[in-house]
Target: L-methionine gamma-lyase
Amino acid sequence: MSKTHACGKYTKAIHAGQSIDPLYGAVSVPIYQTSTFAFLSAEDGAAKFAGEVKGYKYTRLGNPTVNALEQCVAELENGHGGLATASGMAAISTVYMTFLSAGSHIVSTGSVYGPSRIVIEKQFSRFGVEYSYIDTSDLSNIEKSIKSNTKMLYIETPANPTLAITDIAACAAIAKKHGIVLVVDNTFMGPCFQRPIELGADVVVHSLTKSLNGHSDVVAGMIVTKNAELYKKIQAVHYQMGGTIDPNQAWLVLRGIKTLPLRVEKSAQNAMEIAEFLKSHPAVTSVAYPGLKSHPQHELAKKQMSGFGSMITFEVKGGIKAGKAVMNGVKLAALAVSLGGIESLIQHPASMTHAGVSKKDREDAGITDGLIRYSVGCEDASDIIADLGQALEKIK
Ligand code: LCS
Model:
């Protein structure tokens, strides 16, 4: 058991998976920028490949810097182990590849990040995988969609971009009853505010590109499993498929995570203020933020999350035309996709992150053409509000 196993999130974010370098005493984890590792002898190499002796062989099959990151995120999630990947989509595709075969069926949140759905609809379907994209925030929809060939329940909560919330513990009970695996995309909340494995999930996936790295300068992903059996199963597929992260990128994410709890607390505090500002603004017709009492699943959010996150979606009077004027009008927030960075970002899901999902499927999933998504950063809330305020003035 690691020395930080029983520690709190601030300690884990700084120390989990990381120890003083035994060679030179470096306090920061060294970047082992190597593709391969020399063996002590032919026998040593053979023993390492046979699994008889522990040790690194080749970076696609494990690297000390990458392993430090994997342990850190696995501990933050209170899971068994982690597998770091080159992107969030590499993590998700690897998990799909592990559990889905020709003739299997997946039940998933309709309003997931576009490519998480598109890769099933366009690629996995070519190999005979069937799918049902539904509103998982209504549990009765899940029960109705599960079939004899269903192998996976995949949920994203809060969902991107609708911020609809799905009851993780209830999904775990349904998955257990049907003997299927429950996978939760925890990108929007991150482990400081939501730990799906503690609520019964089998596997957690992350786009580390977002709040965990937090500085909009790396693309990376992570898979965390609840036990050793699932870890081994996914690890084999991951090492064969090869969506491995580069050690240098892994180190950057590890550094970003050190301030994760501080950043997500500040951005969530900002987001609450901004959501309230938007709600009271005459040019805004609707605001979705899990921390608002008006959010349809506010009570569930309070139950399964310990914070409400940094993502807000809203619509303005005048639909998409006015929405575009707001996106073009903001000066502080960058008009860019991605989220969870230290800086605020604004974007339009229907024409950007979810453009690959058909208009009908978008509408069924609640992703209207007028929806604007705001990723709240760690700037002063008053500055963000002033910036949004001047942009909204233009459409009044
Ligand atoms: N899961 C969620 C919930 C995401 O939001 C994203 C990316 C991914 C997975 C995929 O991660 P990646 O491969 O990009 O590291 N979401 C994006 C978004 O909303 N805007 O740009 C990317």
Notes: The mean pLDDT is 96.
